[in-house]
Write a structure and sequence with these properties.
Layout lengths: L1 H20 L15 H4 L18 E4 L3 E4 L2 E4 L2 E4 L2 E4 L25 E5 L9 H9 L3 E5 L1 H13 L4 E5 L7
Parallel strand pairs: 6-7, 6-8
Antiparallel strand pairs: 1-2, 2-3, 4-5, 4-8
Length: about 170
């Protein structure tokens, strides 16, 4: 955060110094635009991807056995609701049942979508589980866990109410 404040504070001075260097910029070749490389060099110092508010979950990586969330490594399956994270019992796709997702019968506000991270490969979700998820008012998106965490990050950053049920990437059916 301090780097960002320093960058924002330095930007007006940088713009002033660029204006002093060439008060009347006249490109020698009218088809070529002036370079803004110096103006954007401050962004090299800012890590926009990992600069996340403290109260927001951000998946930063995954392993065969777990996930890295906000700089902390978690082993095993995870269940995320909004910005709340908890350990989840299923260890393989066949363990995912309406009972394992029963928390969604009581969670309010109801997430608009449940992202189901199936492990290494996308799995076909059985009709009973689909009906249960629909009965809670959520939509379902089944993905491999790598893409599931990315989708969760994007939707969560947009401020949408999203949930994720994630098996580790090495999880099997």
């Amino acid at each position: 955060m301090a780097v960002r404040q320093r960058a924002v504070g330095t930007l007006p001075n940088l713009i002033r110094s660029l204006r002093k260097e060439s008060p009347n910029p006249k490109p020698t070749n009218p088809a070529v635009l002036p370079s803004l490389r110096r103006a954007f060099s401050l962004y090299d110092q800012i890590n926009l991807i990992d600069n996340v508010p403290e109260d927001q979950l951000r998946f930063q990586g995954y392993t065969e056995t777990g996930f890295k969330v906000n700089g902390i490594d978690y082993e095993g399956s995870l269940l995320c609701v909004g910005n709340f994270l908890m350990s989840w019992a299923p260890t393989k796709f066949s363990d995912i049942t309406p009972d394992s997702l029963s928390i969604f019968q009581t969670v309010r506000p109801i997430p608009e979508i449940l992202i189901l991270g199936c492990g290494r490969h996308i799995e076909l979700v059985n009709p009973e589980l689909r009906r249960f998820i629909r009965s809670t008012g959520m939509k379902l998106e089944a993905l491999d866990s790598r893409n599931a965490v990315s989708t969760y990050n994007i939707l969560n950053e947009e401020g949408r109410i999203v949930a994720a049920a994630l098996l580790p990437y090495g999880g099997s059916s």
